[in-house]
Write a structure and sequence with these properties.
Order of helices and strands: EHHHEEEHEHEE
Strand order of the largest sheet: 1-2-3-4-5-7-6
Helix content: 25-40%
Largest sheet: 7 strands, mixed
Radius of gyration: 15 Å
Shape: globular
Mean pLDDT: 97
Strand content: 35-45%
Low-confidence stretches: none
Length: about 150
């Protein structure tokens, strides 16, 4: 596996990975209406381009394809961490998170935090993140349960 910085040329592949992961993996914990709202078929390209470019974004590659990606926003905010379903439980998320945590330390962040899905919560707990609060978050007419989680660095 190779971890590389985000290249905008890969945006369509990254969005496809995000869409597929939400619809195939997170569907186990959320309704069809929720995953449709979370990952719509039509990408808001401008929003994704701006966000990924503004954040420190890393992409994991395996065998010539994107296996996962993650991005770190301001003040230690882990915005996204997604792994393609065929690469789950193979260390991809951990490798990306290691890179992002190292970056947060270089930025002198005292903590990292995220809004973890029901699906992702166990992964983050294994990585030393603790639930700060459970929340109900509205998005595109749906309400999602997720968890604000943090790790002191």
């Amino acid at each position: 596996m190779e971890i590389r910085r985000y290249d905008p040329v890969n945006l369509p592949e990254i969005y496809r990975l995000f869409y597929d992961t939400v619809h195939q993996v997170n569907r186990a914990d959320y309704t069809q209406a929720q995953v449709d709202a979370w990952a719509p078929a039509e990408m808001d390209r401008a929003r994704w381009e701006t966000s990924l470019a503004a954040h420190e974004t890393w992409v994991a590659w395996e065998g010539g394809e994107i296996a996962g990606f993650g991005d770190l926003g301001e003040e230690g905010y882990l915005d996204r961490l997604y792994v393609q379903k065929d690469f789950l439980r193979r260390g991809v998320a951990s490798a990306i998170l290691d890179r992002l945590e190292q970056s947060a330390l270089r930025q002198r962040c005292r903590r990292m935090y995220t809004e973890a899905s029901i699906t992702a919560r166990p992964f983050f707990e294994r990585r030393g993140y603790q639930v700060v609060k459970k929340q109900e978050k509205p998005l595109r007419g749906q309400v999602f349960i997720n968890f604000v989680m943090e790790k002191i660095l």
